[in-house]
Amino acid sequence: MKKLWGWLWRGVAILFTLLVLYQLWIFAHVLWWIKFNPSTSAFMETRLEAMQDTNPDAELQYSWVPYAKISNNLKRALIASEDAKFVDHEGFDWDGIQKAYEKNMKKGKIVAGGSTISQQLAKNLFLSGRRSPFRKIEEAAITVMMEAVMDKQRIFEIYLNVIEWGNGVFGAEAAARHYYHISASQLSPAQAAKLAAMVPNPRYYDTHRDARGLMRKTGIIMSRMNSSDIP
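User: That's the sequence. What structure does it adopt?
Assistant: Structure tokens below.
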């Protein structure tokens, strides 16, 4: 029995060491991205693999642009749509999480999420799309890391450049060119609001660009954009 307990504790120690090393690996990436731009993300790689299963020649539409070359209209639209308290919170919107929980309990299924822009970025950069308690814990840990060492503008800049906006379309520049044939710096308020409205279900809206729900949400976002605070 003593020998069994010894092996058990060794196993626990090894798992703990691996977990710590993984967190350090993630934190090293976060520190690197303070100054250097990520060339890809875990979610981008997952989507590319899925696309290449049916078309081996498939490629992502992706082009990094600096924060200053992205329209403020799009920045305001995304804040209005995804995270109204982004500039004020420290990674988590506890009121939003509570409201989402209550709404989901009332509906009996997941119909709303309380994830902030920082949480969404943490998930997209490092994690798979599968829902699990471990993934949510890891997402929270990465969010804390980013908020601790990056300013809000850098977090938002990376987010604007890596989020999905269609089938194989990632980032503001690729989205602006894919949908409107212009650069991200030229997006009008209406165009920006529509792009922001697409974020929760981008692949569906890529092929249903005049969906009634999309048009309704675009109008709501437009009405809130002027009050959005951007970093």
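The radius of gyration is 19 Å.
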